[in-house]
Amino acid sequence: MAQDLMLEKWSGKISTVTIGATIADGGTRKHSIKIGGEKSLPNLFKEGAIPNKTQIAFEIWDAPPTDWPDELNKIYGSYYKDPITWAKTCVEKYKATCLCVRLQAAHPDFGNKTAQQEAQFIKELLKAVAVPLVIIGCGDDSKDSLILPACSEAAKGEICLIGSAVQNNYKTLAAALSADGHNIIAESPIDINIAKQLNILISDMGLPLEKIVINPTIGALGYGLEYAYSIMERARLAALSGDKTVASPFICFVGQESWQVKEAKANAEEFPAWGKETERGIIWEILTATALIQAGADLLVMRHPLAIEKINKYIEELYQC
Amino acid sequence: MEKFKVTFYPDNLTIETEKDKTILSAAITAGVYINSACGGDGVCGRCKVVVKSGKVITQPNGALTLEEKRRHVYLSCLTTIHGDTEIEVPSESRLEFVNLTPQELELRLKGLYTDAEEIEHVAPGLTEKIFIHSPLATKHLLNLPKPSINDNTSDLERLYREVRKIQNIPVMQTGLANIRQLSELLRDSDWIVTVTLGKRNDTVEIVLVESGDTTKTNLGLCFDIGTTTISGQLVDLNTKKVLGTKATYNKQASFGSDVITRIIYAREEDGLLKLHNSVTDTMNQMIKELIQEHNIDLNDVTCILCAGNTTMTHLLLNVDPTYIRREPYIPTANFIPTIRAAEASISINPRGLLSCVPGVSSYVGGDTTAGVLSSGLYKENDLSLLIDIGTNGEIALGNKEFIIAAAASAGPAFEGSGVSCGMRASRGAIQKVNIDPKSFEIKYLTIAETKPRGICGSGYIDIIASMLKTGIIDKNGKIKIDDHRRVRKSESGKEFVIAFKEESDSTTDIVISEADIENLKRTKAAIYSASALLVRHMSLDFSSVKKIFIAGGFGTSLEIDSAIAIGLLPDLERSRFIFIGNSSLAGAREILLSYEATKLADKLARKITYLELSVDPAYMDEYMAALFFPHTDLKKFPSLRL
Description:
The complex is a heterodimer of chains A (321) and B (642). Chain A has helices at 70-76, 83-92, 115-128, 141-154, 171-180, 192-204, 225-240, 254-258, 262-265, 277-295, 305-319; strands spanning 16-19, 33-36, 55-61, 99-102, 133-136, 161-165, 183-187, 212-215, 251-252, 299-302. In chain A, strands 8-7-6-5-4-3-10-9 form an eight-stranded parallel β-sheet. In chain A, strands 1-2 form a two-stranded antiparallel sheet. In chain A, helix 3 packs across helix 4. The mean pLDDT of chain A is 95. In chain A, strand 6 (161-165), helix 5 and strand 7 form a beta-alpha-beta unit. Chain A is built from eleven helices and ten strands. Chain A has one domain: Dihydropteroate synthase-like (TIM Barrel, Alpha-Beta Barrel). Chain B is built from 16 helices and 29 strands. The radius of gyration of chain B is 26 Å and the shape is globular. The chains are: A alpha/beta (321), B alpha/beta (642). The A-B interface holds A 167-168, 171, 191, 193-194, 196-197, 200-201, 204, 243, 245 and B 474-476, 478, 480, 621, 624-625, 627-628, 632-635.
């Protein structure tokens, strides 16, 4: 017996954000990536167009991370002092199609690099690798207000994704990115209202809504993941119903959240019942990522190459449905 | 116990006080009223005084700047007296109890009562004479047949018999005091007396028996007891004419600016009594002035009708309000039986009656019942909304079929409390502004057009709307511009100067800070989200609300466009908004003048459904979405072209 699917007809659409400018677009990237553009809830391929696959960016730092567990140190530890080589390794060895660089060295506790030094670093990085870049500040509001505009200018023409703008510190960044043609990450604390408000504030500054990627803030599996999931779902429902102020793609910092939980870090001697730590962290990152893909994540920032490989495979299979 | 002399300047009042007493407490004893929005917790920083000489001990706090400490400024609530002391109370720290000027009064009572004398022609469409005239207390002239051997019924029964000839009253009561004086009185007045009949719930009492004919002078009072303002009217019960109207500030403000702090204060030693005395003192002073100005004998005032929120009614009657604040929020009584005014320490005729408009719940009181009655919301065919923008923003939604009400704990920001340069709507308050979109220079209009002393609620609404429009602040309420002579950085963010001290009647610049805007944003969000939730609770939409009655002392000079621009009121056709001024006082007056209105108020208080917002899971979400100018969902404000 033939069955007709009950299909929801949505009036709204998620905006499409392009990261990276190729030579044709006036930049120097070998390729660009597109995220967003959905006309349906996540992975309901029959309901509406889902033109772009979920993308993954490798996370790298420009200062040695102090809280990454051994499983990550084993892989990246030798590059911590040389972020350019770290970046090249991700692209060449692990086939990264996008990099997310965290400018941790600007943080007062991590070297306190100046805006000029960070801008110089971004220029070198752009020369060293040809993939699209996501650039994240050090997390210190006043310092980020200095370094991010400088890096924005250094990367002018390359159409990066730069962040994060928060509700009480978005003006300087929005103004700089608007002038240099980049995209912005708007970060809200698991709150759909603040996510919308921040999008409105940023677009009031002259950076169009189509240039915004929302960081909804997530928790790892077991650490509030379902809360993040429901906020993302609510935002998607509002966007697809026609609310343009929240119709932006999502970026989710999967690696950062997954690798800081006890279940990913603790060794087997401490918790024998939990199994080998060599696998546990990777599994945690994979499971967090898969759940977020179901929630509608468009760009995942991840750490472990094996986890990224598995998720890439999962995405391929999903899109064959 | 050691005692010290404390002198307050510029009043030049000296009192003796015990060691360890706070300056604030000594000031109240001396009759010097100092601002204390937080009720003596040392957090609001409003009770600053200058210690000119003497010995005091203070506690550390963050409300004073170094410069102020150098000038010997102290917080009077945290500072105790340890020697003979001289204290200067600056004008910013004073609670003003001066009566409002006629002009201020006119502003507050605009709408229903444009002018006390114009009561016969009220604003069109409102409070038409719909209730049968039958006041709470009526006077009747009786010419009693003299007793004889054949007609030997007792004096009291004789009186009842004559009363029953005029009215069919099966059950009557008379107080012992009246019975004691009856025999002499009847004979001395040659059996011609005037009786005052008072309605005490469903029975009738002979309140007074007077010699001769006094029926011409029968007066009553109605009061709206607000958390911030108390308004009262003297009414001729025979002609329904309002003889005089007065409004003043509730002296309870020195114990905290909202009902919750006052309920907490009532638990302190003598706290309840102090709160009770503050309100009755205020009312008695107003009554005294009203009768003196109209050359009336206090004995001719036979009844008083009061409308207030549930907490104010409890405090008026000296009833413990504690459980109003504690889950599950139970008041001692919503329906208060009519009592003798003297029992509540209100001075009218010693045997005169006091009645309170019945309330609905702990947070929707008699003032709302009175407002629903006087606005006529209860008989509207179309869906109507009543928004009382006060310290407790009460909201009622309904029509002749149903009424549902809620209270938004809006806070006193629109009444000038909790904001750095806030003041109540009185002389010198900035109430309107015009900001030049290019130069950001400001023209302002103050109440009574005097030099500015501060900013009142409607002024804040207009200022925020203008700052949004000119791009001085973003939709989150943060000041966007940096290099301008009016923009300054302070410890708690940026501030914008509205009036420099040179042009003002204040010792400091009149500013609006980011913290103030945040506070006002929360207040407007509370009122808007409560209204939105009420409407949503009935599965309706704002667009189906045909009439919106705006009540409250602050609503009188409100720019409706500005109130919509900041998201305080829903974006509907401006013609749907109707200012009704003090709807609580208007309702109390109707009830004073008509037994029919009394019965209706009882019915309304039972009929109104109370919605407790705090237990509705959607409330927090509505509130969070409203914490933006005008709202997170811009589609709700289509006329603003954002």
